[in-house]
Design brief:
The chain is of the alpha+beta class and about 210 residues long. It has a single domain, classed as Beta-Lactamase (2-Layer Sandwich). About 50% of the residues lie in helices and about 20% in strands. The protein has 6 helices and 6 strands; from the N terminus they run ααββαβαβαββα. A 6-stranded antiparallel β-sheet has the order 3-2-1-6-5-4, with helices on both faces. The longest helix is centred in the N-terminal third of the chain and has 44 residues.
């Protein structure tokens, strides 16, 4: 079947609009990344020159908010390991599930976050339902539907003390390697701040 001139013109217009949309998406993402790394650089400078014990709750919130914005995501958590009980506790949550998850505890061996903390290795899972490490217990608890997930360990030296986890629900964009790199950098800064806080607390105790 022959394609007339009008159809060709319409196809070119449609292709042009698609390219404009993609360019806008790339531009928006680049702007978010540039903003993120400017803020991360400022936080890096601050954590290298700490003279007083930082407000860890505020630090967790600021970094988590930053990572969520950069990755165009609405739901994330900072999860810490309780060495005494071998449980994981949600110490900071941003998203609609905050009230339900704050201070909520799960077993160390639960799902992908448990694997991340046990192995000390970050995980990017584009489709959690295809992963044999995925645990649906939190989704069931929250009546949530996770689609994509990434998780990075929090470390003090070689010791894993927790993780930062971002989740996207059905219909959202899935995470990619660029998102994971941003999360890894943020996790490194949190770990550094925690190390500095521990040193300051020790020196304060010694000085008493």
């Amino acid at each position: 079947m022959a394609i007339n001139r009008r159809d060709i013109i319409q196809m070119l217009r449609d292709e042009n609009e698609l390219l404009k949309m993609r360019n806008k998406q790339v531009g928006n993402r680049l702007a978010r990344l540039q903003q993120a790394f400017r803020v991360l650089n400022t936080i890096d400078e601050k954590t290298q020159n700490l003279t007083v014990t930082p407000d860890l709750e505020e630090l967790f919130h600021q970094l988590l908010e930053l990572v969520l914005h950069t990755c165009n995501c609405e739901n994330g958590s900072v999860i810490m390991l309780d060495d005494n009980t071998q449980e994981l506790e949600f110490v900071e949550v941003i998203g609609g599930s905050r009230d339900a998850l704050m201070t909520h505890r799960i077993s160390l061996n639960t799902g992908i976050v448990g694997e991340t903390i046990n192995t000390g290795k970050a995980k990017l899972v584009e489709n959690v339902h295809a992963s044999n490490k995925w645990s649906s217990s939190i989704d069931e608890y929250l009546s949530f539907h996770t689609e994509s997930l990434m998780c990075s360990p929090l470390k003090m030296g070689n010791r894993v003390i927790g993780a930062i986890e971002l989740v996207s629900h059905s219909g959202d964009r899935v995470f990619d390697e660029n998102d994971l790199n941003v999360l890894l950098v943020a996790s490194g800064y949190v770990g550094r701040a925690l190390e500095q806080a521990e040193k300051l607390m020790i020196s304060t105790e010694v000085g008493k």
